[in-house]
Amino acid sequence: MGLRIVDLSQEIFEGMSLFPIHQKTFIMTNQTHEENMKNTGSEKLGFYARNILMSEHCGTHSDAVIEYKPGGPSMEQMPLEYFCGSAICVDLSHIRYPAYIEPRDLEKAIAKAGLEIEKGDIFLMYTGHHDRYYGTPEFQKEYTGLSYEGAKWLAEKGVVNIGVDAPAIDQTPDDLDFSGHLVCGEYNITNTENLCNLDKVVNKRFLYFGLPLKIRGGTGSPIRAVALLED
């Protein structure tokens, strides 16, 4: 039996789609091959390098509790088990804005997939938003997300990381309480946003890896999220 890796991550590039409150991404050349050869005096080899200015919340990323809870743990203080481990992904693509994802929707989706939530699980929600709108202005505008009750239901089941293929786990733009993040703060858990390719892992249990950078005081971190599945 072989293992297959599915990339669940967006690319990072200048002009990439970002939640409006966050820093735009800039990528600048630090040195070209030719400049480096001139600076080092080498006649055979030069090093090309770039500098990146980006938000801790750009692209596919996970949040530290401190982002939405003053005094909460920052990224380097978060348990690594929140970012890698057993995961399930369920199909919620039939729920569209302005509807919220409620406990009954989660229960039905989990039962339909033939799965169960286990304590410590990473829980990914396939809404289809990335498939429908990524690369268009609509991607950042309107999308479904968890109600307060839906997020709390997941947290009380023992989920440690709630992921989604949209810019946020909250319903946007109506939910100004940011209910999903609010619950994550109450339960000291994380969430992961801007995932993609969830259609390739929907209704499955698999190993998930989405390790953040070890940023001191970090409010979040871009990640390279992948799923590892048995074929």
Side-by-side strand order of the widest sheet = 1-13-11-5-7-9-10-4-12
What's the N-to-C terminus distance?
6 Å
Number of helices: 5
Q: Which bin fits the share of residues in helices? A: 10-25%
Write down the Rg. 19 Å
Overview of this structure, please?
There is one protein chain. This protein is an alpha/beta fold. The chain has five helices and 13 strands. The chain has helices at residues 33-40, 103-113, 129-133, 148-156, 179-187; strands at 3-7, 26-31, 49-53, 61-63, 84-91, 100-101, 122-126, 145-146, 161-164, 190-193, 204-209, 220-222, 226-230. It has a nine-stranded mixed beta sheet with strand order 1-13-11-5-7-9-10-4-12. A two-stranded antiparallel sheet has the order 2-3. α5 (179-187) links the parallel β9 (161-164) and β10. α2 (103-113) crosses α4 (148-156). The longest helix has 11 residues, at 103-113. It is globular and about 65 Å long. The N and C termini lie close together (6 Å). The mean pLDDT is 97.
List the helices and strands and how they pair.
Layout: E1 3-7, E2 26-31, H1 33-40, E3 49-53, E4 61-63, E5 84-91, E6 100-101, H2 103-113, E7 122-126, H3 129-133, E8 145-146, H4 148-156, E9 161-164, H5 179-187, E10 190-193, E11 204-209, E12 220-222, E13 226-230
Helix pairs in contact: 2-4, 4-5
Task: Kindly summarize this structure in a few lines.
The chain is an alpha/beta fold. It has five helices and 13 strands. It is globular and about 65 Å long.
List keywords for this structure.
231 residues, alpha/beta, nine-stranded mixed β-sheet, two-stranded antiparallel sheet, 5 helices, 13 strands
